[in-house]
Amino acid sequence: MSLQNRLLIVLSLLATLAGCSGEKGGDDTASSGQVVNLYSARHYDSDAQIYDAFTRDTGIRVRRIEAPADQLIARMKAEGAQSPADVLIIADAGSMAIAADAGLLQATPDAGLESRVAANLRDPQDRWYAVSRRARVVAYDAAKVRPEEVATYDQLASPRFRGKLCVRSSDNPYNLSLLSALIERWGADRARAWAKGVVANMARPPQGGDIDQIRAVGAGQCEVAITNSYYYLRIAGSPAAQDKALVGRVLLAWPSLDGRGAHENVSGAGVAAHAPNRANAVRFLNYLLEARAQGIFASATNEFPVVAGTPMPDRVARYAAMPVDPIPVGAYGARQAEAQRLFEEAGWR
Ligand code: FE
Q1: Do residue 299 and residue 282 come from a single domain?
Q2: Domain residues for 55?
Q3: N or C: which end of the chain has fewer CB within 10 A?
Q4: Does residue 4 surpass a pLDDT of 60?
Q5: Are 68 and 217 part of one and the same domain?
Q6: How many C-beta neighbours within 10 Å does residue 250 have?
Q7: How far apart are the CA of 91 and the centre of ligand 1, in A?
Q8: What pTM was computed for the model?
Q9: C-alpha of residue 125 to centroid of ligand 1, in Å
Q10: Cα–ligand 1 centroid distance for 302 (angstroms)
């Protein structure tokens, strides 16, 4: 074993201890002794609602470790067959595909799962399934921008928005998968030109997360911002007076990719290749696609459900059926390295 791998395992163990002490989900008093170990790159506190409900309904305790996708993937590689991971969950289809192609996930063919998740939102080899959907769209200053000026992704790169666009850094998986989709649809040359146009339009160097970009539009620092749909909807669902005022001034546009609809991404989940608690992992995966969990994704994180017929708050329902590019989302994985390169060439930090 290389020194680097040894180091990764030590770091992993340290992170495990840290992860356990900060554990929010699960019920330590569950008497069955059953457990499912979750490696999650989702970063939403409300996920504890799903894990707690799972434990209540099944008696299976959820132990979770949270870290960015690239760290979890490196960690599972280093742990190899000794990995305690049962389920990997990542809020990015490209990263799920990369994990699957690295041999970190096992196929879980299941007629129930396949029937609930559209074919373009799951791995063709059944190694992961989408559990929630989101679109990467645009928040805009309603006083300065007309909706028809943000109807396509091309327009974000046009001189109309020179110095007026806010967006986060290029190493973020949401941006990597967006550019991966553009490469897939447009080819590398046009995707690179788009990234250059966006860089030319930046109001400031990339900083912060998507919520920060939306707030920057509200503060007049930029006219348009690229954001995942649920961050806008989270603000829209906030009872705070300043948030209500913000969504009155800053609206959500739904750009279309060559007339197909908005760029869609998903949170995906799959059973780890060496899952020590495989049966519990499969049960957990199924649970994420059952009505209760699907409803929590919609009500608590403002994501769009994967399963049709899930009840959701009005603010989420308003966008849930909006058109999205029907591309197989796993295709983003194979393009992410190229997307990273194009971002560097474009000077997108
Ligand atoms: Fe997010």
Answers
A1: yes
A2: 3-133+266-312
A3: N
A4: no
A5: no
A6: 26
A7: 7
A8: 0.91
A9: 26
A10: 11
